[in-house]
Amino acid sequence: MTLICIGPVTKDLIIVGSEKSFKVGGATYFQSFVFEEYFNDYLAIVNTSSKELINEFPDISKVKVLLKEDTHYFINHYPKRDNLDLRHQLSNFAKIPILKKDLENILKNLKIDAIVLNPLNRYDFPKDTIEYLKSFNVPIYLSIQGFLRCPHEKFNDYYTIKLKRFDDLDNILSGINGIFLDEDEAAILGDVEASEIVITNGSKGSRIISGNEIKIKAVECSQVADSTGCGDTYMAAYISKRLKGGNIKESGDFASKISSCKLEKSGPFLIS
């Protein structure tokens, strides 16, 4: 069973209180560590101008790079060390779309069983690319955050992020099996149709809407070290469990456990 995970790899500045660090990031990057452990048959496809960023992935033989003219840069600012649910985020809003022609040669001879899409802004996946990926007729799981992000106020080369629903989003979401987002994004998105809508809320847990609403408790952790990428980790763990036959509740509980383990350590999820 082959899983294709697509989205940008990023250069991130992480600010926690007064401490600063530079790291590799992006949803596809964080998810690859979970897939490496729990869903070994995967391929990550990333768009960036900095090919060396893939050296931070758990297995670079499972990464394909789409070289572009720019890279996504993010600033993740956590002003209160004791409340990592609170985050201020800025981005350069790189315009480096993943095009249908970028993917055709990579995917044409693969037997694909599921696809994970991780846009970081609405330029990453044009409509033609989404329609091409839907043509494989396999489950598609989408982290919707990028499709809701708009540049707001500019500071040097970065913009603050404003969430806004754009008009053609319903057409893009049509046929998507699973949508992943947080409570702020859910408030902007409003009503949509999908088999599973997974809404995370940090330390308050998560809820999954699939006909009925299923509430998932957050798993307490011994220490809070680094919350960047926790939502991406949750998503990858949930998908891994679902594709291996877990039901919604089992998959949500598993995802909560794995994201809690990630929260206890700096950087991406590692089992030891």
SSE layout:
Elements: E1 3-6, E2 10-16, E3 19-25, H1 27-38, E4 42-48, E5 63-67, E6 72-78, E7 88-91, H2 100-107, E8 114-117, H3 127-134, E9 140-143, H4 145-148, E10 149-155, E11 158-163, H5 169-173, E12 178-182, H6 183-189, E13 196-200, E14 206-210, E15 212-216, H7 230-243, H8 248-263
Parallel strand pairs: 1-4, 1-8, 2-6, 4-5, 8-9, 9-12, 12-13
Antiparallel strand pairs: 2-3, 6-7, 7-11, 10-11, 13-14, 14-15
Helix pairs in contact: 1-7, 7-8
Protein architecture, described:
- The chain has 272 residues and is an alpha/beta fold.
- The protein has one domain (2-264): UDP-N-acetylmuramoyl-L-alanine:D-glutamate ligase (3-Layer(aba) Sandwich).
- 27% of the residues lie in helices and 30% in strands.
- The protein contains 8 helices and 15 strands.
- The protein has helices at residues 27-38, 100-107, 127-134, 145-148, 169-173, 183-189, 230-243, 248-263, and strands at residues 3-6, 10-16, 19-25, 42-48, 63-67, 72-78, 88-91, 114-117, 140-143, 149-155, 158-163, 178-182, 196-200, 206-210, 212-216.
- The strands form 2 sheets. Strands 5-4-1-8-9-12-13-14-15 form a 9-stranded mixed beta sheet. It has a 6-stranded mixed beta sheet with strand order 3-2-6-7-11-10.
- α1 runs parallel beside α7 and α7 packs antiparallel against α8.
